[in-house]
Amino acid sequence: MQQVRNHYAILGVSKNATSEEMKKSFRRLARQYHPDVNPGDKMAEEKFKDINEAYNILSDQTKRAEYDSQFFGKRRPSRGRDTIFRNGIGSNNSYRQDSDFWKFKNFSPGNSKRIKIVNSSPLGRRDVEAKLNLPLERAYQGGRERIRLEDGRSLEVEMPSGMINGQKIRLKGQGLDGGDLYLKISLATHPYFELQGTDIFCRIPVTPSEAILGETIEIPTIDGLVKMTIPEGVRPGQRLRLANKGYPDGNGGRGDQLVEIHIAIPLEINEKEFELYQKIREIEMFNPRHNFL
Questions:
Q1: Do the Cβ atoms of 187 and 195 come closer than 8 Å?
Q2: Residue 106 — very low, low, confident or very high, per pLDDT cuts 50/70/90?
Q3: CATH no. for residue 2?
Q4: d(Cα 1, Cα 78) in Å, to the nearest integer?
Q5: For the residues 81-107, what does the mean pLDDT come to?
Q6: Fewer CB near the last or first residue (10 Å), C or N of the chain?
């Protein structure tokens, strides 16, 4: 029997969890296990993939209903053994002939999707289409991606860099009866990056002293950590721009990274910090409520 993973347990929520509860748990876990936070930690990397897979399925009402039916109801048996393909070519060309639908499993992050018939030829060849869900970093980098078909075949596909939502990758001859397989790219929700056209938006927390005095800090980008200068007196909600650190535009250029400043207040401070804040309060002249008075 094919083992169906408990995505609710992976996200640490109950099967009756609301969308907001799942989103909150996903963001917390994604921050905890993100590769940038755990460089070189393979276990954290696998956990991060599992979290993305679980959230991608449970955050979509249709996918969640299908998953619940599969997990809590009757489970489908696995079919066959894996055959490794390079660039969509392999030695086992067997297909299921009894159905217009079959499944694939994307191992990064691992979504199961139904493939639908999109075109038929007079010779009986049938093109099929399926969604391939990818993390933003994976879609940006491109490279080899492994997918599994329900009939037991496994394909390794060379993906281009800078893929976007809705883009299609054609695998010649990998459809039904000699037709083609089209992989439709879908970008997974990222824990702190948001794609806005070719710009990448994120929120970065800074301390009160960093906001007032200015500071050079490290922030994550799609290329890794970079240093950014926080100007003196930066305001909450103010946006700073990192030129050419966004997403590829398809013409050799890139968008920018937009960094929105969030001033984080510490939950706890030590005795020395408390004394210094008291001294600041005694001498400070700034009154943010002046206009109210």
A1: yes
A2: very low
A3: 1.10.287.110
A4: 6
A5: 30
A6: C
* Structural domain includes residue 120: yes
Instruction: Please classify residue 217 by burial: count the beta carbons closer than 10 Å to its beta carbon, then call 0-12 exposed, 13-18 middle and 19+ buried.
Output: middle
Helical packing angle, 61-72 and 42-58, nearest 10°: 100
Residue with tokens 């696995």: 78
Both tokens of 89, joined, read 């070519």
| Cβ neighbours for 53, distance < 8 A, ≥ 6 positions apart | 5, 7, 10, 109, 110, 111
* Domain boundary residue, one of 157, 189, 221: 189
Give residue 240's pLDDT: 96
- pLDDT class for 89, splitting at 50, 70, 90? very low
Q: Which domain holds residue 127?
A: 78-189
Q: What are phi and psi of 185, to 5 degrees?
A: -75, 135
User: Are 25 and 12 contacting, i.e. CB atoms less than 8 angstroms apart?
Assistant: yes
pLDDT for 100 beyond 50 = no
How large is the average pLDDT for residues 68-81? Answer: 51
In a domain, 287, yes or no: no
pTM above 0.85, yes or no: no
Q: Where on the phi/psi map is residue 110: left (φ > 0), alpha (ψ -120 to 50), or beta?
A: left
